[in-house]
Amino acid sequence: MADxxxxxxxxxKEKFGPQQLEDEKFLREERLKRELGLRFxxxxxxxxxxxxxxxxxxxxxxxxxxxxxxxxxxxxxxLTRNQSxxxxxxxxxxxxxxxxxxxxxxxxxxxxxxxxxxxxxxxGGTQDWTVEEFGQEIxxxxxx
Length: 144
Hints:
The protein has helices spanning 2-59, 131-143; strands at residues 64-69, 72-80, 83-92, 97-101, 111-116, 119-124, 127-129. It has a seven-stranded antiparallel beta sheet with strand order 1-2-3-4-5-6-7, covered by helices on one side. β2 and β3 form a beta hairpin. The chain is an alpha+beta fold. The longest helix has 58 residues, at 2-59. α1 crosses α2. The chain is elongated, with a radius of gyration of 22 Å.
């Protein structure tokens, strides 16, 4: 029976071994992308919080308000008593993408995170953004 088992293992490795290696590599890459995507999301939340605090301190009023709920972030700019803008971001960690909603007729494409070297960048259309660049794009939209 040992000879039969050894032969069966050998044939199975020859037949399925290369595909198993590819599958394992794919799963490792997906796990890495998911971890880096969550890190990007957490860094973006922290960056937006810092900007909220620093901007309001320099401006002298609470103009910028960042709130969080689950995998979503809401950024509101209250420019005057009668004028405010809100951007809502929701993050899908399974797909590594943001849905960017301004609540107006202006639509933004989904912002996909992609692996660039050993880090994630946000890709909106043909533009790639770091955490800070993506955050600046959002804040500029809220306060413009």
